[in-house]
Amino acid sequence: MDKNEQDRTLPIANVGRIMKQILPPRAKISKEGKQVIQECVTEFLSFVTGEASEKCYKENRKTINGDDIYWALGSLGFDNYSEAIGRYLHKYRQNEREKVKQHKKFESAKYQLSYEGSTPKTSRQHENQSG
């Protein structure tokens, strides 16, 4: 496998790790077995990405996004994968929205603290600090 080809494949260690997750604990996987799966995965990803890329090209877009992959999987007849990706995208986007909300709450609280810290203290606050 030349360098250019290597750049387009998943690392063999990752492929082996993923394969082991489904196998019994004592099962072994030959190097050749990992390489065959690595080639299949690379071919599959190229196939799906090519379909998504074509869609983007027709829509005059340069960036493939998650929705394009979702569409490509469905378009190519990989409905089970498409459904799984759809669920993942939905959860991912919910999580991202939640992160933004949390960040806004944090920024608001930080602003509130800095604003309160810049106001003059009342005599009661002075008493509490000195006593």
Automatic annotation (TrEMBL):
Residues 99-131 are annotated as: Disordered. Residues 9-73 form the Transcription factor CBF/NF-Y/archaeal histone domain. This is Transcription factor CBF/NF-Y/archaeal histone domain-containing protein. It comes from Lupinus angustifolius. One of its GO terms (molecular function) is DNA-binding transcription activator activity, RNA polymerase II-specific. It holds the Pfam family CBFD_NFYB_HMF. GO terms for cellular component: CCAAT-binding factor complex. Keywords: Transcription, Transcription regulation. It comes from the Eukaryota. InterPro entries: CBFA_NFYB_domain, Histone-fold, Transc_fact_NFYB/HAP3. Belongs to the NFYB/HAP3 subunit family.
